[in-house]
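Consider what follows.

. . .
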Amino acid sequence: MLFKTMASRFSFSASRLAGSQVVAPALSTRALPPRTLSTRASMGKGDLIKHVAAEADLTAAAADRAVNALLDVIMDKVAKGEKVAITGFGSFEPRARAARVGRNPQTGAELQIAASVAPGFSAGKSFKDRVKAAAPK
């Protein structure tokens, strides 16, 4: 019925529309740009828990508790001002940011940005080496 309606509006025969094959447009032969880090899939906390469960032969619930416990310990220690170093992986530490003068982008007026403390991460040598080895060349 839809084909007949379309055929009458556009002066095509319904049999031509119903029996036609759809042909995909030809793909461009232009070279595609190399993949960048922003186009790669990201792993969320749930994915991390699934991988930990598989690698450590744990149930999903046990892996969930282990990952959450690890993250809680890291966050608690860094919040207390301590550095958490995991050999080969990296270190987490609080980093002080000095007070500075900023600008309101709409008005251009100067404003004072207060000093703050933010969490920081530095990758360890083994982590850096593994990422470097896996990078596209």
Q: What stands out?
A: Residues 83-103+112-137 form a domain with the HU Protein; Chain A fold (CATH 4.10.520.10). The radius of gyration is 28 Å. Residues 1-17, 22-28 have pLDDT under 50 and may be disordered.
